[in-house]
Amino acid sequence: MITITSMTPADIDGKAYVHYQSWQETYKGLMDANYLASMTLEKCQSIARRFPDNILVAKDEDRVIGFAGYGAYRDDTMPDTGEVYAIYVLAAYHGQGIGYRLMTAAMEQLSAYKRIALWVLRGNERAIRFYERVGFSFDGTVLPVVLGTPNEELRYLYHKHHNENGENNHDPA
Questions:
Q1: Considering the entire predicted model, what is its pTM?
Q2: 90 HSE (CA, 13 A, CB side)
Q3: Which domain range does residue 139 map to?
Q4: CB of 105 within 8 A of CB of 143?
Q5: What is the CATH number of the domain that holds 33?
Q6: How far apart are CA 96 and CA 92, in angstroms?
Q7: pLDDT by residue (tens digit) across 24-71?
Q8: 20 to 30 Å CA-CA from 169: which of 29, 40, 86, 160?
């Protein structure tokens, strides 16, 4: 059974492995091979230990198979905006609704915000299709990034809709 919970100290190494393995599975051919090779398991473990807060993990029994990181938008250019910083699921678990469950759980954690942003690497078509199915749309903002070689990240936004009671509806369904 797949469960979604907040990350605990016992989940850190599993989250780090998903981060490492998902990068290898997702970004091969989308970014410089040397840069991708520099994203080692040890580097992902260090990241997981430095940033343990606001992480949800998907687990198959006791094994971490996916995660989502979330919080306030990365800078002050978009007030009242939350951000999904990262969402990854091991390729062996794609197509089972786990990414959707992680995204829904992250969006629930961001329910106080009027909108939610995320950034996606140009060319990551699988992720773009997923975000669009959830209800995000490209807002035209492009961020140049250097990942060994020049790349671009695209900003996607999800605008919450209000129901007849004036409450935010953040269910992406």
A1: 0.91
A2: 17
A3: 2-169
A4: no
A5: 3.40.630.30
A6: 9
A7: 999 999 999 999 999 999 999 999 999 999 999 999 999 999 999 999
A8: 86
- Positive or negative, the CA dihedral 136, 147, 17, 13 is negative
Could you tell me the two tokens for 39?
């994203």
Helical H runs in the chain? Answer: 12-27, 33-38, 41-50, 98-109, 125-134
Q: What is the pLDDT of residues 136-159, one digit of tens each?
A: 999 999 999 999 999 999 999 999
The tally of domains found in the chain comes to: 1
130 phi, psi to nearest 5 deg = -60, -50
Q: Residue 116 corresponds to which tokens in the numbers above?
A: 């939610």
Burial of 165: CB neighbours in 10 Å, binned 0-12, 13-18, 19+: exposed
CA distance 108 to 125: 25
